[in-house]
Structures are given as structure tokens and as C-alpha cells.
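Case study 2.
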Amino acid sequence: MITQTWDGATVKYYLDADYRAQWSAGSPNFDSVSAEAFLGAQGTFNYFYGFLGQVRLYNKTLSPSEVAGVYNEGRYATP
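Prediction:
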């Protein structure tokens, strides 16, 4: 499971609920009606050729324990 959180200033990257890296990231501009969000691509290029399953978006920044909880929740589910 790949997870990224953003608290308004910093993006944190987790792999299978293990913290891996972080970097500074400013605020995106969601004020425009024409603003688009891309999953699996960087704008209209650098496409991810694969499958994105069980995508979740939250209206808050998940804590490390919440990231672990989401990971463990799906870990034992049968497909």
C-alpha cells in the first residue's frame, strides 16, 4: 500500500504503513473551477501504466497510527 499525506506544508510518503520520506510542498490552487486532480499521472504526462485499486481520499491529514490502521484493515481482507 502506498500512502501520501499532506499537512499544508509537508508531504509524507509511506510504503505498507512504514514511513519512507518527506518533502516540502506548497499549497495547490483549488480555487479555479477548471482545476483538475490527477491520480496515476503527472498532469497530462508521465502516466502510471498499471492498476490503482482501493483509492481513498480523506479531508484531513492522517497520522502515522491512522496510516497503519488503514494498512492493517485491508491486510487481512480476502479479495
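DSSP finds one helix and three strands in the chain.
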